[in-house]
Design a protein that fits this description.
CATH superfamily: Rhodopsin 7-helix transmembrane proteins
Shape: elongated
Helix content: over 70%
Number of domains: 1
Strand content: under 5%
Structural class: mainly alpha
Radius of gyration: 23 Å
Length: 273
């Protein structure tokens, strides 16, 4: 949902700007709302993927205590915290974003305040930390821990299967049914892990250019730049933004290609239509 919101609010106005019909370039309130919702939706989508990585880590843990930490109440609370924190964090855009700026020599006027260096630093730093850096670190760390848990779990299963169990003959039928259920659950979990891994990889790769550019813009904010250098920065900036939007556009295809459950539900939806 939030990925779609990023595309509509963030990418569509860029297309309209090419035809000179982007109202966010001429109306200040639309400009501020556009940046706020673009940042907010991108941050929320990234945080939700991070929460999914944490959830996969907890469910794959061999510790019963960690698995019991997953409850609907905690999930709803985490979502609420993410939503509220995003509003507070990116609310600065209503002050630091305005029209008639052309900060990087770009054709769009809606951007950070050109004469307010503190706003440029704050806006770039907040987006880099909370929309790019922290979600990427959480995805990488908990993704690695999840695969470590899966490896440990498979090692334990193999050890049990190799052991000598004298009661195997009396509970064979029951064990077989339980084993089939476990295999189905493991298959589903495997698909979810694959889908999550691909999504994390796409996120890290697609957000890396804009993250580097944001850091560069903060470090060089006080430098006097030639028109040629500004033009080069503008080109790099636009390429980085396109790369960032690529992450939001490809989510549907990741779910379709990597998630069998998602494909089944999608086909059901098409049949009903």
């Amino acid at each position: 949902v939030f990925d779609s919101f990023v595309i509509v609010v963030g990418l569509l106005p860029r297309l309209l700007n090419g035809y000179g019909v982007d109202l966010s370039q001429t109306f200040s309130i639309l400009c501020k709302l556009r940046f706020f919702f673009t940042y907010y939706a991108g941050y929320t989508a990234a945080c939700f993927i991070s929460l999914a990585c944490i959830e996969r880590y907890l469910t794959s843990s061999t510790s019963a205590y960690k698995r019991q930490l997953i409850t609907k109440k905690r999930a709803y609370l985490s979502i609420l915290i993410v939503l509220i924190f995003g509003c507070v964090t990116f609310g600065e855009g209503f002050y630091c974003i305005d029209i008639n700026q052309q900060l990087f020599g770009a054709p769009q006027s809606c951007y950070q305040l050109k004469l307010n260096i503190q706003c440029q630093i704050a806006d770039s730093l907040l987006q880099f930390i909370f929309e790019l850096l922290i979600p990427a670190l959480l995805m990488i760390v908990f993704g690695f821990l999840t695969f470590k848990n899966v490896h440990n779990k498979h090692s334990r299963v193999n050890a049990v299967q190799l052991g000598d169990n004298p009661l195997a003959a009396t509970v064979g039928t029951r064990r077989m049914s339980v084993s089939q259920e476990k295999r189905a659950a493991q298959k589903r979990d495997g698909q979810l892990r694959t889908m999550l891994l691909v999504q994390v990889a796409v996120f890290v790769i697609s957000t890396f250019p804009i993250g580097v550019f944001k850091l560069y813009s903060i470090v060089t904010v006080y430098q006097t730049k030639s028109p040629l250098k500004r033009a080069i920065e503008n080109t790099i900036f636009n390429i980085s933004v396109i790369s960032l939007f690529f992450n939001n556009c490809i989510t549907f295809y990741i779910h379709t290609l990597c998630g069998q459950v998602f494909r089944k539900e999608l086909f059901k939806l098409f049949r009903c239509a």
